Structure to design on (1114 residues):
C-alpha cells in the first residue's frame, strides 16, 4: 500500500468509528493507471469494519460532456465490479452541469446510487438573477425526488483535488427577503430555496401510489394459483382495481352484442369466479347490452364457493347465476356457453397458467363462442436494476437467481423498448395443443441508445385483447406504452411487471466503435405436472441457460 | 421444442440408455439464428440423465481458414457457456485441413476437449502416393498424443448434413502389404498406419515425466511451511531433484570464492536445513572452492533435527557442522556468517514466506555477507485451462476460487508470454522492510496473438538469482523461457508452477476490429500473522478482487 492508500484506509475506519452515515470516496481523480481498482481494494479491505457506514463513491454524474460522463460511468462499473457488487458501496452522483440528455442520467436510476450532489456550478441565473437549473437538470432532479434519491447541494467544483470550492460572492445572488428559519446570510440559501420549489412542484403521490409504496422494488415470489387456494384478503386486493373490471364489463358487453341476437338469452361462464367480481361485471354487461343471460360460475376454491353461494342469495341473482364447484379443467357441467370469461392472466400473460386452464375449459364453449380474453401477448425489455439484482443475490442461492419475480419497479431503468416474445389465443382449436413457446429477441446498437448502462435482467409485461369484434375492441395491458387506465386516468394496478434476473450483470458498453447488441432467449416449457420458463442472454456475452428443466422455479399444473 | 430438438433429445437419451461413452452433437451445422443456444438447451435438458455418457459437441477444430476456425471456437464458447460450463460437455475437434498455425490449434488444449476427429480430408499424398499429414497437422497430432487427447479417424467430410462421407476409392491408396492383424481391405488402413507411425515418433516419457504423470492438472493446496512440519516423505521428494542442489552447490562455491580469501575459513549458515541437502551441497562447494568452512544448520522441525544430528555422526561432519534447533527468525546463535543459504522459494518465489524468513535470519550475516538466493522475481501469464478451472469450481465454494494452487500443467495453453510482477532481494538493508507488493500487468492486442481463446486464470512462476558475483552467476528458475536444466538436460522438477484462478472465465475475442487487452492486478499483503495474495482482472472485463483481506487463503507466519 502506498501513502494515499493508507490514508484512505485510515479515513474509512475513522468514518466507521464515528458512525458516519456514509464515507465519500473520490473516484473523480484517482490518478495513475489502475487507480480505480486500487481504491476499490482499499474499500473492500475495510468494508467489513463499516457496519453502519456506507461507502459513497463520488463520480461525475453529469459533466455536460458525453465522453466525460461515459468515463465516470465506466469508473463506477470498475469500482462496483472490483468490489464484487457489495450492496453497501454506492455511487454518489456529482452533477456539475446540465445532463446532455435523458438517457445520460436515467441510466443511473438502475445503478446503486446513494445520493446526488448538485454543484452550484450546475445552476444558471434567470432573468431576475436567481439561480435556477436548466431544463434537463430539472427533469433529473424531479425524477430523483420521485425515486427517493437524496439530493445534496455542494459548492465543490469538481476540480481534481477534491477540495476546491466555487466562490459564491455575495454580489452574485439576488435580493434577500430575510425569510424566517433560513440563514439569510448563507451563500447557498437561494440554491436551496430553488430546490425546495422544485420539490414542491413534484406531483403528490396518489392514494394508489401510496398504497403501492411498500411494494416498490420488493421481490414477490410467483403465485401457485392452481396448487394453492387464494386467501380472502388476496381476492380483496384483486377486486379493488375498478379499471380492470370496467374493461371486462365492456368486453363482455361487446361479445354479447355480437353473439346474442336481440331478444335471445345469452350464456356466460365465469371460470375461476373467486368472490364474484366477474359475475357482477357480466351481469352489468348484460343489462347494458340489453341481453338477458345465464351465468355459470366455476370455482375450485371451496372457501370462495361459500362466498359465491352467499352472494346468489344476497344480491338476488336467483336462477340467473348457477355455481359449479370444481376445477374448470375437469368439473362436470352439461352446458355450452357463448362467452367464457376468466381473469387468469399473470404479469407476463401466460405465467399463471391461463393457457392450460382455458384449454381445459373451452369444452364449455359453443362452436361460435368466444373467450374473454381472446388473446394475450408477452413482452420483455432489458433493464438496469441494481437494487433488484442485489435483492436476488442476497438470497445466496442459484434458485433465487433462476426465478422470475413480480415486482413494482421503482429504481429501474429501461435500456431499450419492450419487444414481443409470444402470444396465446383462445379458444385454441389446434388438433394438438402446444403451449410450449420459444423466442429469441435482439436489440440492435441503435435501439440501445448512446449512453452505456448495466444490464441486470429483463422486465416482462403482457398486453391482452379481452375482446375484439364488430361491437368494439377492448384491451387490458401493462405494457408501458399501452398501460390500461382507470376511469379517473390512473394506471390499472392489478398487475406489477415481472423481473427475469440474469446471474451476472453485463456492462453494456457503448463507448467503442463496434456495434453492441443485446440478445435474449426465452422458452416456455410444460410437462405433465408443471410449467416453467428457461432463459439466457447470448449477447453481448453468452450467459448460462437459467432454470433448465425447471430446476429452480416452476408453477404446478 | 421443434422436431429437430425433439429428435436430438431422443438420441441423447438413447445414448444414455445404451451407456455409450459419448454422444456426438453436431455444432457445425446448427442452422438458423440461435441454433447453438437451442442445441445447448437440449443438451442441458438431458444432461442429468446421462450419468455415464459424455456429450461431445462437434466443432471444426481446423478448417484451413481463420474465419471458419474462429467461428467454430466462438460456437464452442457459446455452447459451453450456455450449458453453464458443465464438466461432461466436451468439444470434439473435427479437423478437415492442416491448421493454419500453432496458436490456432493450441488454444484448444485449454478448452474441455473430448477427442480430436481427424478427417481423411486433412491428409495429403506423399510422393509415393501414401496419405500423410501436412507439417502443422503433424505437430498438432503429436501434441494431442502427448496430452492424452484421443485421436479418431473419420471419413465424414464436414458437409453440413453431418452424414456425407469422403469417397476413398481403392485406387486412391498405395500398395497393400497385407500385414497381419489389420484388415488390409479397409479403406482407412493406410491413414491408420500413418497415425501409428506418428504415435511411435512421439518421444517416450522420461522417468521423471512418468513420476509426475499423476500430478498432471492436479490441484495441490499451498503448503503452510511455517505452521506445519514437513513429513519425511516430503523431504524425500524435494531431495530427489539433483539439478536444484547442483545449482546451489555452484552458487555457494562462487560466493565462497568471492567472499573468503584463500586460506581463510569461511562460514555458511543453512536456514531451514531439513534433512541436510544444502549442508551437503555447501560442504561440496567448500571442497570445490578450496575454502574450509564451518556450517551452521538451523532447523525448526524437531523431527528433521534428529536426522541432522544423526548425519553429523554418520557422515563424519564433526565440528564442521553445528546444529541450531529453532525458528531462524527467533533462535539464539551467536554467529555471523559469510553465506546464508536457504531453499525457501515457492513456485511463485515469495509464496512460501522466503522474504519474511530471510529478513528474520539476515541478522546472522556479516556486513559483507550474501544470501543464496540473492534475489527472486515473480512472473504471471494468462492461460486457458478449462480442466483446472473445472476442478476449482467443483469444490463449489468461493474459498476454492480464491486460492492459488500448485499444479503440474498439462492441458494448459499460454495465451501470452509471462510478465514480471515483482522482485525480492536479500539481505534487505532498508530501514523499514516492506514485503507488501503491488503490480498491474497488461498484455496488449499484439501480445495476445490472432486466435481467440478463453482466459481461465494465470500461471505463476519464479526466476531466482542464487548468486551473482565476479566468480559467476547462478540462476534457478521455472520461468518457461529460462527453466533450469539438470545435468542430463532434464527440467528441474522441484517446483510445479502455480495457478491463480479467476471466478468467471473470459472469452478473449480476437474477431472484432477493436483492440483487446488483458489487464491483471495482484497484491502481496502481510499482517502480523499471515501473508496472502489478492488479485483481479480489469480487462477485457472487470472481475471482483479475489481474496480481499485473505478471507479465503493465507499462509501463516
Amino acid at each position: 500500500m502506498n501513502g494515499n492508500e493508507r490514508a484512505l484506509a485510515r479515513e474509512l475506519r475513522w468514518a466507521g468509528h464515528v458512525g458516519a452515515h456514509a464515507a465519500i470516496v473520490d473516484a473523480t481523480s484517482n490518478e495513475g493507471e489502475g487507480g480505480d481498482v486500487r481504491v476499490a481494494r482499499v474499500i473492500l479491505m475495510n468494508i467489513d469494519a463499516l457496519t453502519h457506514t456506507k461507502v459513497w463513491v463520488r463520480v461525475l454524474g453529469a459533466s455536460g460532456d458525453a465522453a466525460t460522463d461515459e468515463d465516470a460511468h465506466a469508473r463506477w462499473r470498475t469500482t462496483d465490479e472490483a468490489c464484487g457488487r457489495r450492496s453497501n458501496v454506492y455511487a454518489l452522483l456529482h452533477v456539475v452541469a446540465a445532463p446532455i440528455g435523458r438517457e445520460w442520467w436515467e441510466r443511473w436510476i438502475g445503478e446503486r446510487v446513494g445520493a446526488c450532489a448538485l454543484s452550484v456550478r450546475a445552476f444558471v441565473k434567470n432573468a431576475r438573477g436567481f439561480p435556477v437549473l436548466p431544463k434537463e437538470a430539472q427533469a433529473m432532479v424531479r425524477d430523483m425526488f420521485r425515486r427517493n434519491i437524496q439530493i445534496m447541494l455542494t459548492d465543490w467544483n469538481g476540480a481534481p483535488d477534491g477540495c476546491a470550492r466555487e466562490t459564491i460572492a455575495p454580489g452574485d445572488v439576488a435580493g434577500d427577503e430575510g425569510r424566517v428559519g433560513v440563514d439569510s446570510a448563507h451563500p447557498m440559501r437561494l440554491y436551496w430555496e430553488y430546490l425546495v420549489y422544485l420539490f414542491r412542484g413534484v406531483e403528490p403521490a396518489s392514494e394508489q401510489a401510496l398504497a403501492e409504496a411498500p411494494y416498490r422494488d420488493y421481490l414477490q415470489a410467483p403465485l401457485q394459483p392452481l396448487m394453492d387456494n387464494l386467501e380472502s384478503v388476496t381476492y380483496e386486493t384483486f377486486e379493488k382495481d375498478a379499471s380492470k373490471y370496467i374493461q371486462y364489463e365492456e368486453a363482455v358487453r361487446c361479445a354479447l352484442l355480437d353473439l346474442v341476437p336481440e331478444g335471445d338469452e345469452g350464456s356466460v361462464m365465469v371460470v375461476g369466479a373467486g368472490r364474484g367480481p366477474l359475475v357482477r361485471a357480466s351481469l352489468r354487461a348484460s343489462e347494458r347490452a340489453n341481453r338477458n343471460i345465464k351465468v355459470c360460475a366455476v370455482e375450485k376454491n371451496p372457501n370462495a364457493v361459500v362466498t359465491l353461494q352467499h352472494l346468489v342469495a344476497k344480491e338476488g341473482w336467483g336462477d340467473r347465476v348457477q355455481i359449479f364447484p370444481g376445477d374448470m379443467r375437469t368439473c362436470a357441467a352439461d352446458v355450452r356457453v357463448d362467452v367464457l370469461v376468466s381473469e387468469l392472466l399473470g404479469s407476463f400473460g401466460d405465467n399463471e397458467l391461463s393457457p392450460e386452464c382455458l384449454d381445459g375449459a373451452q369444452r364449455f364453449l359453443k362452436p361460435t363462442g368466444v373467450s374473454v380474453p381472446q388473446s394475450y401477448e408477452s413482452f420483455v425489455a432489458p433493464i438496469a436494476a441494481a437494487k433488484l439484482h442485489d435483492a436476488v443475490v442476497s438470497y445466496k442461492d442459484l434458485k433465487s437467481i433462476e426465478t422470475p419475480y413480480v415486482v413494482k419497479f421503482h429504481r429501474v431503468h429501461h435500456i431499450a423498448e419492450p419487444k414481443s416474445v409470444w402470444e396465446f389465443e383462445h379458444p385454441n382449436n389446434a388438433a394438438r395443443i402446444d403451449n410450449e413457446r420459444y423466442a429469441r429477441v435482439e436489440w440492435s446498437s441503435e435501439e440501445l441508445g448512446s449512453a452505456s448502462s448495466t444490464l441486470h435482467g429483463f422486465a416482462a409485461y403482457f398486453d391482452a385483447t379481452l375482446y375484439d369484434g364488430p361491437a368494439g375492441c377492448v384491451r387490458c395491458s401493462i405494457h408501458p406504452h399501452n398501460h390500461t387506465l382507470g376511469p379517473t386516468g390512473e394506471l390499472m394496478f392489478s398487475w406489477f411487471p415481472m423481473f427475469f434476473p440474469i446471474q451476472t450483470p453485463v456492462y453494456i458498453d457503448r463507448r467503442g466503435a463496434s456495434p453492441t447488441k443485446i440478445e435474449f432467449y426465452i422458452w416456455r416449457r410444460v410437462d405433465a405436472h408443471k410449467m416453467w420458463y428457461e432463459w439466457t442472454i447470448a449477447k453481448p456475452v453468452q450467459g448460462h441457460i437459467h432454470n433448465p428443466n425447471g430446476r429452480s422455479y416452476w408453477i404446478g399444473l
